Amino acid sequence: MEPMQTNYDRAQSVFTDTKTASPPRVSRATWLGLFVSLFATLLVRQSVSYFWPTLTFAAAIWKETLIWASAAALLVIIRRGEHLPLRSIGLGTARWWMSISWGLVIAVISAAVVGGLVYLTGYGHGPGSAAFEALPLWLITLIVFRAGVVEELFYRGYAIERLRMVGFGRFWSITIPLVIFSLGHWSGGAANILIALAAGAILTGFYLWRRDLVANMIGHGLVDFVANVLPNLFS
C-alpha cells in the first residue's frame, strides 16, 4: 500500500502545485490510459459506423459494449498499471449525499445553459437522431447512463488529472479534453458542438472546483436523461 500512496501523492502535488518544475516520471501505462481516455470513444464510434453506416440495434449494442470495455480497461490501467487509487481521478473523494446534491446542482445549471443555447441556435436534431430515437427506450436509457459515467471518467477525471501529471500545464490539461469532447459531437452539427462545449465547460469547472467525479457523472447523466428519455416517456 505504501508505494501506491507515494505515487498518488506525487500525482496530486503536480496537479495542485503550479510551480512544480518537473513532473514525476510517467509510466507507459499512463500514456496508454491517456490514449484510451481521449480517443477510445471516437475510435469505437468510427469503427462501428464503418460496419453499420446507419445506427441499428446491433450497432448500438456493439458500440456500448466496446465503450464499456474501454472504461473497464482504463480502470485496470489505473489500478494495475499505474498502481494509483481511484481517488486519483476524483472517485471516492466526497460523501455520497454530497455527490448527489452537487450532481443536482450541476444538472440544473447545465440544463439552463444548454436549453438557452438550444433556443438561440434553433438546434433540433442531428442527422442520426431519427435512428437513435428508433431504438428501444431501455437501450436509450442505458446509452444515456453510459454517457454520464464513461464520458466523465474519460474526459474529466482521468484526462485532466493525467495530462497535468504528465506536465502539459493547467491550461492544456483542461483545454485538450474539452476540445476533443466537444468535437466528438460533430454528428449533430456545429450547434451540437457548441452545446457540448458549453456543457463540457460547466462540467470541467465543477470538477476542478469540487474534484468529485461522482457528482459530475450524476449531473451529466441527469441532463442527458431529461433531454433524451423524458420526452419519450411522456410522448
Topology:
Blueprint lengths: L1 H15 L11 H24 L5 H25 L14 H26 L7 H5 L3 H30 L2 H15 L5 H22 L2 H16 L1 H4 L2
Helix pairs in contact: 1-6, 2-3, 2-6, 3-6, 4-8, 4-9, 6-7, 6-9, 7-8, 8-9
Can I get a quick summary?
With 235 residues, this protein is mainly alpha-helical. The protein contains ten helices and no strands.
Question: What would your notes on this structure say?
Answer:
This protein is an all-alpha fold and 235 residues long. It has one domain. It contains ten helices and no strands. It has helices spanning 2-16, 28-51, 57-81, 96-121, 129-133, 137-166, 169-183, 189-210, 213-228, 230-233. It is globular, with a radius of gyration of 18 Å.
Q: How would a crystallographer describe the biggest sheet?
A: none
Helix percent band: over 70%
Distance between the termini: 53 Å
Order of helices and strands: HHHHHHHHHH
* Total discrete domains: 1
Low-confidence segments, ≥5 residues, pLDDT <50? 1-11, 13-21
General form: globular
Strand content: under 5%
Number of helices: 10
What is the tally of beta strands? 0
Summed over residues and divided by their number, the pLDDT gives a mean of 89
SS content category: mainly alpha
Instruction: Report Rg.
Output: 18 Å
